[in-house]
Design a protein that fits this description.
This protein is α+β, with helices and mostly antiparallel strands. The chain is built from ten helices and 20 strands. Helix 1 runs parallel beside helix 10 (about 370-400) and helix 3 (about 70-80) crosses helix 4 (about 100-115). The structure holds flavin-adenine dinucleotide.
């Protein structure tokens, strides 16, 4: 096994991981970014998301007011430059930014590949770690970049909290706080000449879950047409157990079953075929950091501004209940809450930070925090906090030596 030494190791190449790694490298840290799949982008890419959520303040009097500047703003500028239309849209009570996943992926890839001091290891999974007292001593990687990595600071940006679970710094969602997961198929060759394909698909799946031909967990499955007119996305909703590898296989099998049913029972899907699919089940809830502070539903809905707040967020609590389905609880129009830096710091592991969906948040708060706009900003801040701690550590080591 090869052995490698870095200042900062970021595990997970989703929005939070990319901004964390780019920021750490910009601050002069020798940085490694590890991603299990073949490209950067995380769930946004793997689920073909149509919108970036959580970027704007949702204030009707000052529309499209960006909540966070810095690297989030830079990312958005580059995304806008590459897009052929202005993505800003109001949808109901929230403001979103429409995007093509291919451009989203390209911008993240460019940000990372152009960054000096950053090594990106794709098709490489974090598998295990060794502790030395209250510090992570080394990380084991498998796949293309197989080896043993030592890093002064570790940032968990896996979404599912894989690093923090392994070092005992994680918390599982309480009962009643686990949300439905998703699994997406990109489907083409749909006949939408009567403009009924989404309605027929949603109705057909719903009926099959009611009469027992499909499992009930699939009842909130939806089909939406792509904006570019090329087919659409079939988004399965699935009961989720955290980090069970066989769940991914189950999601694939159910995806095939749903499409088979649609082909058989609707004219619109008779010739439909799959051109792409999620490589894994996409979780909404999972292991989160046991942080110094745990942000909760009240903090979110009351728009609490903490003194050590480091990221602004305003997305509603969008909770996908396994029985009742999705429901939204909104902040007041134009209101925002601050996520304190203590939600990114581990209570017990001194060189571990969380970024993105696995920060320290209750299940309900997480249903607001987890959107891509907020995760981009969380990654940048996690890196800044980690580097500041690293510099303090170096300073105090120098004092001890002298
Ligand atoms: C069905 C669904 C639809 C959604 N729709 C939207 C939407 O339209 N707009 C929006 O803004 N948000 C949406 N979200 C939320 C959003 O996609 C995620 O919450 C967000 O991407 C989280 O970002 P992240 O960087 O924390 O984690 P992720 O995006 O999940 O990225 C984590 C990365 O870590 C990698 N990884 C995991 N484990 C390891 C390991 N052991 N080793 C190496 N790499 C690893 C993963 O492959 C992944 O690339 C949706 C979520 C779901 C589930």
């Amino acid at each position: 096994m090869k052995s490698m030494v870095y200042d900062v190791a970021v595990i997970g190449g989703g929005p939070a991981g990319v901004t964390a790694a780019v920021t750490a490298a910009r601050l002069g840290a020798d940085t490694l970014l590890v991603e299990r799949f073949g490209d950067l982008g995380g769930a946004g890419l793997q689920g073909f998301h149509p919108y970036l959520c959580g970027l704007y303040r949702n204030a009707p009097d000052t529309p499209f007011d960006l909540l966070n500047r810095g690297l989030t703003e830079e990312f958005l500028r580059r995304l806008t430059r590459e897009s052929d239309a202005d993505g800003r849209q109001r949808v109901g009570r929230v403001e979103v930014h429409a995007m093509r996943t291919s451009i989203y992926q390209r911008v993240l890839r460019c940000l990372a590949s152009e960054q000096r001091g950053l090594r990106v290891a794709l098709l490489t999974g974090f598998t295990a770690l060794e502790m030395a007292g209250s510090r992570i001593e080394s990380l084991r990687l498998a796949g293309v970049g197989e080896g043993c990595v030592k890093a002064a600071m570790v940032i968990d940006a896996t979404g599912d909290g894989e690093v923090l679970r392994q070092c005992g710094a994680g918390c599982e969602p309480k009962s009643g706080e686990r949300q439905l997961a998703g699994y997406c198929l990109r489907v083409i060759d749909i006949d939408d000449s009567e403009r009924m394909a989404p309605i027929r698909a949603n109705y057909c799946v719903r009926r099959a879950t009611q009469d027992g031909r499909l499992p009930t967990e699939l009842r909130y499955t939806t089909f939406t047409l792509s904006r570019d007119g090329e087919g659409g996305i079939l988004k399965l909703s699935l009961r989720a157990e955290p980090a069970v590898p066989r769940d991914d296989q189950r999601a694939r099998t159910l995806g095939d079953k749903v499409l088979e049913l649609l082909r058989r029972e609707t004219e619109e899907f008779a010739n439909a075929s799959v051109v792409d699919r999620s490589p894994r089940m996409l979780h909404r809830s999972g292991t989160s950091l046991r942080g110094i502070y745990r942000i909760n539903q009240n903090d979110v809905l009351r728009g609490r501004h903490f003194e050590n707040g480091c990221v602004r967020a305003a997305w509603p609590i969008e909770f996908w209940d396994p029985v009742a389905g999705p429901a939204l609880k909104y902040l007041n129009p134009g209101a925002w809450y601050a996520i304190p830096a203590d939600c990114l710091r581990s209570e017990c592991v001194t060189n571990l930070y969380a970024a993105g969906r696995c920060i320290s948040a209750t299940g309900r708060a997480l249903a607001s925090v987890r959107v891509i706009g907020t995760c981009l900003a969380l990654g940048e801040v996690a890196a800044k906090i980690a580097i500041a701690a690293y510099r303090n550590m170096e300073k105090s080591n120098a004092c001890t030596v002298s």
